[in-house]
Design brief:
Elements lengths: L19 H13 L12 E5 L2 E4 L4 E4 L2 H4 L8 H11 L13 H13 L6 E6 L2 H16 L3 E5 L8 H6 L17 E4 L16 H17 L5 E6 L2 E2 L5 E2 L2 H14 L2 E5 L23 E4 L10 E6 L18 H33 L2 H4 L3 E7 L2 E6 L10 H13 L2 E2 L1 E3 L3 E4 L7 H21 L1
Parallel strand pairs: 3-15, 5-6, 5-7, 7-10, 10-11
Antiparallel strand pairs: 1-2, 2-3, 4-12, 8-9, 11-12, 13-14, 14-17, 16-17
Helix pairs in contact: 3-9, 4-9, 7-8, 9-12, 11-12
Length: about 450
């Protein structure tokens, strides 16, 4: 049974935030739940619909976080809910590790049609993005017979021990867990705004490529020992930083030349979020392996590792998952793909252009806005103490996020001082205009108080 509809497309707040019920739950959470979770503000959700979230006290918020970019088609989309309910009444679980069911094939066929490259693909199903990355690590080593892996500074590939070995976003994510995978090397990411080698943004990607070939390959890891290079076409937790298209093409060329597998982590940037199925498409590259999750099933736990069929030929028992590719999650994913194809990807492109066009004026309007970047509805604004030094303004960003909450807008930070916009892909022009206005007000208030 579908719950009561939320009858507004914009925020509706009453009283002080958080409300009394929210305060009570937050206090109980502190008693019973692991403190390792990060919470930016005291939202206690009760129900969601479209781009709106209602809390336990009846306040309604506009959600521009979307479950960390996971609710791609909006909260509780009727077609997704219907698909989930129908499948749950028929078969909830049997495990694709041991048995067959058609939904695994149906989704794999749909993913193959929209994945770059003409060679046939195979799909491994997992429960999350980190599991999709773990599968890619194992597959890369298995298929190549090589051990070493290369990732990028600022990247986030997950928190389980294999993917965490690649992750280099924040030290706290690695602190206290002892030795990780050996044979993992990190190189600078071509951040156009903060080029790690200095100089202008135009040559940043070239500098990274030169560092890879002249330093890493010559002094640290012979390319013949490298199984794969993992790259986010748009760094997510690193600050919503797109890689230059030419850099991605050059990286793909290097991988092909040395027999290294190129793994694109599209966990956050994929499934239409950037206005295309995959952020990789903006560079025209064809990754050997692709990792996806988050928006694939509109909030249901599902991940997938997609690879060329000639690569994914490991033997039975080499890798598996009890719950990966659960029938209910696959039903949600099939409904999600239909909705994305039916117009939500195009909406992400169109509405994202409108939002970004307005955001681009912020670098002149506000003294603390250093950079605006991204594609589709994967947009970031980076805050600095001043534009000349480009010193990250972490605390200021956090105050803006907090003020947005009190205006009825849910947003999250990313990287050291970036605010991310990653709403459901069904948001309309009125909603993005409200979000932009709310952030403009929050920036002005925080700057004035500084």
């Amino acid at each position: 049974m579908i719950g009561t509809a939320i009858d507004t497309k914009l925020p509706r707040l009453h009283g002080t935030l958080p409300g009394p019920k929210a305060k009570e739950i937050v206090a109980l959470d502190g008693r019973h739940i692991s403190p390792s979770y990060t919470r930016s503000y005291p939202l206690v959700a009760k129900r969601g619909q479209g781009a709106m979230i209602e809390d336990v006290d009846g306040n309604v918020f506009l959600d521009f976080a979307a479950g960390i970019a996971g609710v791609s088609t909006g909260h509780c989309h009727p077609k997704g809910v219907e698909a989930i309910q129908r499948q749950a009444a028929e078969l909830i679980h049997i495990s694709g590790t041991d048995f067959y069911y058609s939904q695994m094939i149906e989704l794999a066929e749909k993913l193959e049609k929209v994945t770059p490259g003409k060679e046939p693909k195979r799909v491994f199903y997992a429960n999350s993005g980190t599991e999709a990355v773990e599968a890619a690590i194992k597959l890369a080593r298995y298929a190549t017979g090589r051990e070493k892996l290369i990732a990028f500074q600022g990247c986030f590939h997950g928190r389980t021990m294999g993917s965490l070995s690649l992750t280099a976003s924040k030290a706290v994510q690695r602190k206290g867990f002892g030795s990780l995978l050996s044979g993992v090397f990190h190189i600078p990411y071509p951040n156009q705004y903060r080029c790690p080698f200095g100089g202008g943004a135009h040559d940043c990607g070239d500098d990274v490529i030169e560092h890879l070939e002249k330093v890493v390959f010559k002094k640290l890891a012979d390319p013949s020992d490298v199984a794969a290079i993992f790259v986010e076409p748009v760094q997510g937790e690193g600050g919503y930083v797109p890689a230059p298209p030419k850099f991605l093409r050059d990286l793909a060329d290097i991988c092909a030349r040395h027999g290294i597998l190129l793994v694109a982590d599209e966990v956050q940037s994929g499934m239409g979020r950037t206005g295309k199925w995959w952020a990789s498409e903006y560079a025209g590259i064809e990754p050997d392996i692709m990792c996806i999750a988050k928006g694939i099933a509109s909030g249901m736990p599902l991940g997938a590792t997609i690879a060329r069929a000639s690569l994914m030929n490991w033997k039975p028992g080499a890798h598996a998952s009890t719950f990966g590719g659960n029938p209910v999650c696959l039903a949600a994913a099939l409904a999600t793909v239909d909705l994305l194809e039916g117009g939500y990807i195009e909406n992400a492109r169109k509405v994202g252009e409108r939002l970004k066009s307005r955001m681009q004026g912020w670098t002149e309007r506000f003294r603390t806005v250093g950079d605006v970047r991204g594609m589709g509805l994967m947009l970031g604004v980076e805050f600095v103490t001043d534009r000349k030094s480009r010193e990250p303004a972490h605390d200021l960003r956090d105050r803006i996020v907090e003020r947005a909450f009190h205006k009825g807008l849910l947003v999250l930070g990313a990287g050291e001082s970036t605010l991310r916009f990653c709403p459901p892909l069904l948001v309309n022009e009125e909603q993005v205009d409200f979000a932009a206005s709310a952030i403009e007000e929050a920036i002005a208030e925080v700057e004035q108080a500084a």
